[in-house]
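The instructor's notes for this session suggest beginning with a concrete chain rather than abstract definitions. Hand out the sequence below and ask the class to guess, before any prediction is shown, which regions might be ordered.
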Amino acid sequence: MSGEINIWDMSEDQRRAEIVKRAASGARRALGLRDYIRVEPTPKPIYPRPAVGPISLRLPTWRRILAEVAIAHGIPPILILGRQRRREIMAARHELMYRLSTETTMSLSAIGKKLDRDHTTVLSGIKAHKRRHNLDGDNG
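After discussion, reveal the predicted structure:
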């Protein structure tokens, strides 16, 4: 089976899976109306793949966390990584910074490099996310 399928002809679940796949592969632009997916038969691997544990047992990668945040907020990854300062985009960006700092071993400088920002901006975003969701343990 070889051909092209318009991404907008897919079900919403298939479209979300494709967005995650593209985000994980480093796609740097949002999906447009003319985006097509090439469908080709999958060749059998020559060597068997090594057994990999469940996702929860593996160290999360920054691209997977980016894709999860994008889906949770309904915002394309390209906008989260971009420069727009709309409130909902900033909330998603701050959550991404917080999750990268807590779920990975990345330093603030490394997170800043991935997001094309300074480490102090990352620290400020993490603090804003904690304030927004009262994660400091303070009640006042």
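Then share the key points. The first strand starts at residue 3 and ends at 6. Strands lie at 3-6, 36-39.
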